[in-house]
Write a structure and sequence with these properties.
Length: 363
């Protein structure tokens, strides 16, 4: 006696409710066997540590997803310029040309002003506070709400931790020294600098060194000692300032086409989210592990002067930041909602940080 499974299932489905129940496992198995081939573009150039390669990087994320899914989901990664230009990821993902993009949400300020809050906020929260707000303070839900009308969804996928203020060809002693400078600086900090007379430039990472070296710009901010040394910024400027006022944290954004996301089965969605969370932790840990040596090398062997910005300059930057953020919130309802959520959480987090991290760091 032969058994024709297709005929059996077909008859059962046609004649009984029991057939529907019996057919369900086959549907689940078919779904679990389906493979997904996606593409991810990137705002940063080939070989960039953290932003493209290395622990917790986007390519590491792609490997994690493939391994965790048993090969059911494979993501082909393209660094900036390999498939699309550096800052075209938003349009590429929204239109469905690719399913994913790695970058920073503040690159899309011209399309969604409030997106900047999901990368960093000047004088905002550190990485611990930012993660707390995103994962457990309503930040991620707001991010999703803002992106949904554009056909997008996003998750945190990395973090540099606090960043250096940047490189200057001349020393900064007073607020007046900022006036007239041409500076590469993205995000909300760029708006603050602009209020103080700085001519702000938004440049991809690969363009920073040549423009600074040639004097096309007078100052530039990128990340921190390890990443900045790799770009050779110490060869174009010698005054290296810190405080972290402009980027007390910096979130890497995993942007996903919403329709493609909703087409994934729940287990693969869970894998993508888990891989992104893993990279968020690992990338920041890697940054912490390499920056101290790099800073020592810059100072000891490259003739770099590393120091905090003068207190009077920081105080003025803080004043302008508060006004800039308030004005932005007043001009856009979505920004107002995000601003209110972020600041309320920041104020609460500061109370805890004052008796935990701040007290410990003062030892």
């Amino acid at each position: 006696m032969t058994f024709d499974r297709r005929k059996f299932l077909g008859a059962a489905l046609a004649t009984s409710t029991a057939g529907l129940v019996m057919g369900a496992p086959a549907i689940v198995r078919a779904e679990s066997n389906k493979t997904y081939q996606w593409k991810m573009t990137n705002a940063y150039g080939p070989g960039s540590p953290f932003y493209v390669e290395g622990p917790g990087s986007p390519t590491d994320f792609c490997r994690k997803v493939e391994a965790m899914s048993g090969g059911r989901m494979k993501i082909q990664h393209f660094a900036a310029g390999e498939l699309i230009p550096a800052l075209e990821g938003f349009n590429a993902v929204a239109s469905g040309v690719v399913e994913m993009n790695a970058g920073n949400a503040y690159f899309w300020a011209g399309k969604i002003p409030a997106a900047q809050y999901f990368t960093t906020v000047p004088f905002g929260m550190n990485t611990q506070g930012m993660n707390a707000w995103l994962y457990h303070g309503g930040g991620l839900e707001l991010w999703h709400e803002l992106y949904a009308p554009k056909g997008l969804i996003a998750f945190p996928m990395g973090n540099t931790g606090v960043q250096m203020t940047g490189w200057f060809r001349k020393p900064i002693n007073t607020v007046e020294d900022l006036k007239g400078l041409k500076m590469r600086i993205p995000g909300l900090a760029g708006k603050v600098y602009a209020e103080l007379g700085v001519a702000v430039r938004l440049l991809p990472g690969g363009e920073i060194f040549p423009t600074l070296e040639r004097g096309v710009i007078d100052a530039a901010e990128f990340v921190g000692p390890y990443q900045d040394r790799r770009l050779g910024l110490q060869k174009a400027a010698k005054y290296y300032y810190t405080t972290g006022w402009h980027e007390p944290t910096n979130v890497t954004e995993l942007m996903i086409n919403k329709a493609a996301w909703e087409g994934l089965p729940e287990d693969l969605q869970a894998i993508v989210k888990a891989a992104a969370q893993a990279c968020n932790v690992e990338s920041q840990a890697w940054c912490e592990s390499v920056n101290a040596e790099a800073l020592n090398d810059l100072v000891d062997n490259e003739g770099v002067t590393a120091q905090p910005l003068p207190d009077t300059v920081v105080a003025r930057l803080k004043e302008v930041t508060e006004k800039t953020l308030t004005d932005m919130a007043a001009a856009d309802p979505d920004t107002a909602r995000v601003h209110e959520s972020f600041m309320a959480f920041r104020d609460q987090h500061k109370e805890w940080a004052a008796v935990s991290e701040k007290t410990f760091l003062a030892l």
